[in-house]
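Session log. Operator J.P. requested a structure for one protein chain; no other inputs attached. Running the standard single-chain path with token output.
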Amino acid sequence: MRNDKFGQPEPPPVGFPSAPQQHGYLPQQGLPQPGYPPSGFSQPGFSWNPPPPQPGFSGYPSPPPPPHHGYPPQFYGAPPGYGAPQAPAPPYLPQQTTTVAVNGGWYSRNQKNKPQSNAVGAAGLIFVSGGMNIAWSIGFHGRLFYKTTNHNFAAWFIGGIIGAVLSCFLTNKIAKKYVLIFSSILVMIGGCVIASTRNNGDATLAGSYLDGIANGLVFAPFMALAGEVSVPYMRGLISASIEQMCFGLGIFLQIIYTTSWNYSTYPSYNSFSSENMKGVLSIIYGLLALIIGSLLCIESPVIMLANNNNEQGAIDALRRLQRPYTLTNETFEQLAEHKKYLAHNKELSMGQSIGQALPTFIRLLFLRGLNAMSISKFVYISFLYTFTHQYGRGSWGWFIGFGICRWMGNFVATFCMESSGRKKPTLLGLFVCSILAFVVAVNYNTGNTVMLLFFELLAGIAFTATSPYLSEAYPLGVKQHFIAFTFIGEMLVFILLTIFTWNKNAGATYFYVMGGLYLFGFFFVILCLPETRRTTLREAQEKFSKFINTGF
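Structure written below.
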């Protein structure tokens, strides 16, 4: 290119376009350099003044060092892309995948998400008290010095139904923390009534009602809350821990201390009995639940978004549900997923929500009914009958084995929930329980105590997955109502089995029927129950919307 004004070749500019020009002089020699125009003249296409800064560009790069004496620089001008303004950060896009990959071991994941289990952990203490009352109602109550009827043993289940019905009217109208505090007080009052009286059937009846109402009030709200505050890879563990494992722990504790108390100390009429001990333990559980719930309970971020569109409150809740308590990208990913879940459910009318919930209700009610059959009065009396035939009276260690096996089934399945999933343990437990039930029925009159112990172990494994299913299966608009209806259906099964009269022929028939139902349940689960391990609430709900689910 030639300079039109001077007729000489035009060299490229020295350094960057924005660098100060040397006005035709070499700084080392002070002489004009041939080919450079004198100062005050401009060349076409050559700017003597630095260009204005571009938007988002904070400054100008420093000019390169001068070339060696006598040697012209080998490259003039800025290298490609050097000094260009950085592109703006891409807009935040929420995570689109539904399967969550988690780095780190179990301990680190547990510590990071500990506030989620703390938020619902107080309800687990109330469920421990409920498990003790279930065990008491089916027969693990030691020596009683007052007259009883079926009403005494069905009272806790009736109270549970009353509490569940009341919880339907309180759905999303009263904060869950206040429901928990009220239920904790009911548990404490019921425990005080039982602990302060001796051999009083009416006081025991009142205490059972109060404890049952408390458990019914807490069940639906906190099973729903467990699903909404948990991250997908912790939801199964948290929901199973506070429900099935805590009920199983209560059953285990009731069996342990009443059996040991009854057979080792032989309490008299006026002594401190195992009934009073149950009241004392209920007071302790209620007090701990009151303290923990008041301090650590966190409301659902989903409900905050749904009721008042309180996005700031939802973000603050999500921040406090993971350690450290700071805002991270994961916090906003969870918020975005909750908004998707909420938008998905807002598209459903009330009729559509009920229509989608009914098939799910049938599936879960069937499984919860089988769960009630596995730990009923008939099973207790059959166990007592079989080991008496084999080993005689006084073998109280078998009762302790019964409690350990039941709770260990819950324990093992709970901590395998996010590795093996929900469907596989359920299928394993149902199939083996079906076989064991038929074996017990065939050998009912000759005794088969070991088979009953294994039956309880596998039953605990089979039904632990019903807890996460309850927390994630139902549409949001009717979730708490249908969780309460499922709980009510389970309580009705307990009541029916309490009313029926046992005899050895009826006991054998009961296990034949149970074996057949468990075998049917095995094939039913294969065809109709989805696998929801590590999926979001939205994805789990979509899976349950299909009645046929053959995937694992």
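Operator note: DSSP finds 20 helices and no strands in the chain.
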